[in-house]
Design a protein that fits this description.
Structural class: mainly alpha
Bound molecules: tryptophan
Largest sheet: 3 strands, parallel
Number of helices: 15
Oligomer: single chain
Strand content: 5-15%
Helix content: 55-70%
Number of domains: 2
Shape: elongated
Order of helices and strands: EHEHHEHHHHHHEHEHHHHH
Low-confidence stretches: none
Number of strands: 5
CATH architecture of the largest domain: 3-Layer(aba) Sandwich
Length: 338
Amino acid sequence: MDNKRILTGDRPTGRLHIGHYFGSLRNRVKLQEEYETYILVADVQALTDNFNNPEKVRKNVREVVMDYLSVGINPEKATIYLQSMIPEVAELTVFYSNLVTISRLQRNPTVKTEIAQKKEIFGESVTYGFLGYPVSQAADITAFNASIIPVGEDQLPLIEQCREIVRKFNSIYGETLIEPEAMLSKEKRIKGLDGNEKMGKSLGNAIYLSDTEEEITRKVMSAVTDPNRIKKDDLGNPDICMVAYYHNLFTSKDEYENVCKECRAGERGCVACKKQLAKDIIEYLKPIREKRKFYEERPELVDNILMEGTKKAQIVAKENMKRIKKAMKLDYFEDFHI
Ligand code: TRP
């Protein structure tokens, strides 16, 4: 059995930003060279907390695929597919729901935090679908026999829950599923322009891979700097300045050290410093922006890539499902399958 298959993905709830780029996308571009890679656009999972806004999910499917392609995810190497078009995932979710208790789901730290954050959609009582999304994520992973799951730290409880389901399944129905392992991204989470620990759409503090040069400049000019520094010759503290923080990501080590030195000495004005940063970010993201434009002008090509990836994924999931149903004694007819 292939034990080098990796699988990961994103909920299509917005365009991807530089936090995604440094946190996971850049790594995926490397991993596709070494592993058989599956990347899912998790539209069904996106609906668990956006069920009242299907238009938003639909629109962002293509945005996310274009973001993938523009950073260098290569459809010849990685299979990009749409979750909702893999019916086996929905079936497995039903099967696995017998193997997990409600209280275990309620204790899942990621789910718990998210429920607390999503009061405006769930009110006092969470939906069955949202509470159960870790079960569906276990189905995403096992439908493809994936063994390595590259994710950020917030996803670890979901992988752990998947492993428990796999163990339980194997102990009841016989060794059938691979127990996957998380491959934790080495990169730290990128902070927002406002200094918030998280970069996110709802926080309005993100630079998107698809932002125009003007948008990047406007956002960088509004980034939070050392609040005690009012005049240019005030001595600055780059450790609490988001502009210095981003210089560290987008410029060379030498240049970053120079920025910090001049800032501490009061020799570098914030406005000039921001202008320089905006220029550097624009330059850094230029190849991504150009590639994205290429795909934006060719929506039928993007659709085709997603369709071809999904077709390939369907075949793999279908094959795998035969084995799983057999283990569960649901293989009634030799030549008659759905
Ligand atoms: N939960 C992931 C996120 O919010 C997306 C996702 C869905 C996923 N299914 C997955 C990630 C399977 C890894 C494996 O980012």
